[in-house]
Amino acid sequence: MQRRLTVSQLNSYISGVFEDEFVLHDVVVRGEIFELKVMGARTFFTLKEGGCTLNCVSFARIGGEAGMNADVTGTVTFYAKSGRVSFVAESLRVAGEGELLLELKKLKEKLEAEGLFANRPALPAVIRKAAVVTSEYGAVIHDILSVCGESDPAINICVCDVRVQGTDSAEAIARGIADVNEYVLDADVIVVARGGGSASDLQPYNTEIVARAVASSRIPVISAVGHETDYTLCDLCASARAGTPSIAAAMICAPWAERTARVLDAAKALVRGVENIYSEQKHGILYSAMRVISLGERLTERRTSYVKGLLAKISALADAALSRRRERLAAVGAALEKLDPLKILSQGYAKVLRGGEELCGSDGLSAGDEVTVVMRDGRFTARVTKTEVGNDGRKDRRA
Questions:
Q1: pTM beyond 0.85
Q2: Residue 140: domain span
Q3: For residues 242 and 223, is the Cβ–Cβ distance under 8 A?
Q4: Is 306 within the bounds of a domain?
Q5: What is the largest CA-CA distance in the chain?
Q6: DSSP-derived secondary structure letter, 203
Q7: CA nearest to 133, candidates 84, 99, 81, 183
Q8: Total tally of structural domains belonging to the chain
Q9: What angle do CA 80, 84, 88 make, to 5 degrees?
């Protein structure tokens, strides 16, 4: 008959088995420290050997570092609440470099000898489009888009979705980098990004295939893998390394921000230059204007004096001309006065008219002709009774 147990009952039983098993106490385990993290007074690390791993915890700082082989003394425990097996380490003795670390060092030396870490293309001064090789479902791409959106909304981000951990992830990452180089021709930079994780999570970025893909990229690559303390072969082959994906996002926006700052500085310098030029020109213009005003005043004084003299000359000439006109008019008036018939008549002379025609002599007059006699103060009509011809020499005179 099957026994029915609750989870707590089963876990309690397993915990008791672990506690009663003598071989699980005060045991020495050798393995490679795969990853290590210190949190306060506790040290968490993983031992790896072959294809197996063992989660370890120490309630004190016991030294060691990732990649080293170590002999760890402790006890295997089972935590009933979480149902997890853990190795509580009491002491740790380094036993040399681990196999994984040795393999990584050999690969690093090989790639460095081939020149994969040198002469990487520099990041462009202005980045307008970035291709991000990462998982489109992770938090990494959202962090990058958020930072870029705040710093430079105009930057274009395209995502090359790849598997970032697990089986065939290294091949997927390398293929993603190659695809960007082949198809995204206008990309200014490639960001190979992955969030923090364990050493096994970051292992794809320490593979030869990913390192060679980054090194052979014609487009500059920014490696943003893990945390700031994590270093991979991908970092060494890239044009630049960013401690985190968010830092990578800030880096691709930095050139734009710097250029904007330079443009603003240049604009301010231009304004200051224009203000200086204006100030100098203003003083020059004011000085020139004062000189022009002064010159104008002097010219005005000279012109006024000249005009006054000219007017005086014109006035004198006009007065002289007028005086001459008056003299000529007076002479003409005197001559006319002499010829005035009324004045002649006032001296006792008279005009004789016949039929309205003025007679200059007695020729043509006959007794019985009616004539009109015009004198100084009037006229009268007379009839000729007799005519005589004189010998005083005025017979033919015409008055």
A1: no
A2: 104-256
A3: yes
A4: no
A5: 206
A6: G
A7: 183
A8: 3
A9: 95
